């Protein structure tokens, strides 16, 4: 995710799509199961799933006539890291070091 994740954020910011993402946190579900859990009707649900799929926030798996959806955990982790401004691998390697500001009273931190 080299560029700002604007499209991904737009995709997840919609109330219906956000509800679908929350439901999929429990694990892989087929469209009928998502419909039942979310209360979103089939035509609207298919449209919302299409947007999430295009943004690569969900993954699909087909089994016979059923399509199963699951969260794309890697993509969502990248999105979270982009929002928080951290590179997960880099931040794990370097310790956070505080340096005193010149000209400012610095107090000892008791922990």
UniProtKB/TrEMBL annotation:
Q: Where is the HTH arsR-type domain?
A: 1-91
GO MF, one example: DNA binding
| Ubl conjugation keyword on record | no
Which Gene3D superfamilies does this entry report, sorted A to Z?
Winged helix-like DNA-binding domain superfamily/Winged helix DNA-binding domain
Chain spans, region Disordered: 87-111
User: What keywords sit in the KW lines?
Assistant: DNA-binding, Transcription, Transcription regulation
Pfam family of the protein (one): HTH_5
**What protein name is recorded for this chain?**
Transcriptional regulator
Q: Which organism is it from?
A: Erythrobacter aureus
């Amino acid at each position: 995710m080299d560029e700002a994740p604007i499209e991904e954020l737009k995709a997840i910011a919609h109330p219906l799509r956000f509800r679908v993402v929350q439901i999929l946190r429990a694990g892989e579900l087929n469209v009928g199961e998502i419909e039942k859990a979310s209360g979103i009707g089939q035509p609207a649900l298919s449209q919302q799933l299409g947007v999430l799929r295009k943004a690569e926030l969900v993954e699909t798996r087909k089994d016979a006539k059923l399509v199963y959806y699951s969260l794309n955990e890697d993509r969502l982790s990248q999105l979270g890291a982009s929002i928080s401004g951290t590179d997960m691998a880099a931040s794990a390697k370097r310790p956070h070091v505080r340096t005193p500001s010149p000209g400012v009273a610095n107090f000892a931190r008791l922990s």
